[in-house]
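Fig. S4 source data, part A: sequence.
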Amino acid sequence: MSIERLRATPLFAGLPEEHLERLAEMSEPMHLRPGDLLLEEGSPGDALFVVVSGELDVTKRADGSELPVARIGPGSLQGEMAALEGGVRTASVRAVSEAEVLRIPNEALRALLESGPDVALAIIRTVVGRLRSTEATLRQREKLAALGTLAAGLAHELNNPAAAIRRSVGGLGEAMALRGRAAAALSADSPRLARLVSARPAQGAPTDPLEHGDRIEEVADLLRALGAAEPDAMAGDLVNAGWTGEELRTALGGYGAAEIEPALAWLASVTSADALLGEVSMAAERIGEIVGAVKDYAYLDQAPVQRIDVREGLDNTLVILRHKLKGGVSVKRDYDDRLPQIEAFGSELNQVWTNLIDNAVQAMDGGGELRIRAELAGEGVRVAICDSGPGISDEALPRLFEPFFTTKPPGIGSGLGLHISHNVVARHGGRIEVTTRPGETCFTVTLPTQLPAR
């Protein structure tokens, strides 16, 4: 590459002639066509690249998709972070148009840094700017990912009670139709029907298995004596609804053999309708519980800073993530009843619990024991979230809270979850610590009762 082309690049514009000549000798010009891959995320950082002409897209894999980070043009640096620290590429770069790129190997980069403070400062400014830009982009994506987690959990949790309501409503239609046919067969103006309509069992089904079995046998014998077509099957439903043999004998008193079947059909419709209405009520309560948990989790319609109970935040987070816990994760909670309320940014703190619990579940590969402990820590509170996973390696442990660092495979996570959690805890004047060994990893968050003075 000619010295004139190098001098036209802003980074090298101020270099003395002899440095430009040396750089030209040690560097390798590259020509890229649209679609060509310049850098691949996860590959070793063996060189720095300078875009001389053309446009390229920078992307980062996260949660199985390619996230656009930036579109770069002439004068841009790429790969400088991996080259400087001798690590791996944290993003991929692909040509959008015809592009000319200068490849500067690591040994040339070191010589370039030694050439003078101006070049070193220019590269440092580029690195810092890149970190800020990438972190801002991925922070936004972390927020979107959190919304996705919330939406997925909400959809999963609401689906079951909603499906139960749909089933129950359909069953109610059948029960009402059965009731209508039975009433027609018995004659709507019959005083005996009025007595049957007002009849209800005095109590629920017996809980003792032996007593439950004895009552079914008693009711089946009665139905058999009355000439019922399917006494055994019908007896179980009636006993489950709370009927005893004596109560049925009273309710069915005066009915002839021809009327027993429609009378029992009436009772069956009433029993079924009551049970279905109970299911609808339970499902509606479950929906209300989920919606209430989500509202509390997000602190909707509330000021950013609240006096909060961390136990409620932990429980609401578990509701949101319940769909991830059903595959074999058991949860053990140990909350101190004496915990004080603390001043906090409630929704941000709940995001910390979400990150830590979600990481714990992933570390256990969907199966194991999740232990959550909340206890007094002086005048503040301490929350420990522990998993029974394989633990964290000694190499990874010192870097856990660094931005973009992750122990997950490329494309699974952005490496910002723990970094953001660390910053949120620090904003609250607290600290987050980790202890780990095979079979147990604990992240411990300690928080004061008051936010630091702002």
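Fig. S4 source data, part B ends here. The chain has three domains: 3-115, 154-290, 299-447.
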